[in-house]
Prior knowledge:
The N and C termini lie far apart (77 Å). The protein is elongated, with a radius of gyration of 33 Å. α3 crosses α5 (78-88). The protein is an alpha+beta fold. The chain has helices at residues 10-17, 21-33, 37-55, 62-71, 78-88, 166-171, and strands at residues 128-137, 140-149, 155-161, 176-177. The protein has 2 domains: 10-88, no CATH class; 128-177. The longest helix has 19 residues, at 37-55. β3 (155-161), α6 (166-171) and β4 (176-177) form a beta-alpha-beta unit.
Amino acid sequence: MHNHAAQFRLSVMARILQVSRSGFYAWRQRQSIGPGPRQQRCHERDEMVMLAFEAGKGRSGSPRLVLDLNDAGHSCDRKTVANSMMRQGLRAKAAKKFKVTTNSKHNLPVAENLLQQDFTATAPNQKWVGDITYLWTDEGWLYLATVIDLYSRMVVGWAMSERMTANLVCEAPTGVYRPRCKRA
């Protein structure tokens, strides 16, 4: 109604929109005054919740944020903080559990770094590199070992197995696929 007051009469717009003219005038009066004390407290609380949420790296939900805010001297309850988070679109993300995939503390010999981070080759079959990854297949998780020629970036060979063993890596240049043996 406010945007179209110059084009249409207020009484006509109020009748069509089924609102009272006095309600429109009261709303316009409130807009010129600014937010009331309740809205100001709500805005301040939202800022405190946002700061506490960011301080927790986005991992804290409303129960933990309430504890943090109470420790900081701001009294609030869980539902108030949950509503503030919902209003601001804040959702706690679960911390990912760290999973160790490599055992670096061993007494086994470590291979020498022959490439010294130089991954360029001037001729084919001059430098080969390998990598191991795991893939989900219809047979379950399988390990894939690949060998790539650094000159052409072509796959020289690959091997798959259900276990990551030294044998898997040794068979990669020949291109071997060993599926799981199904027991009867």
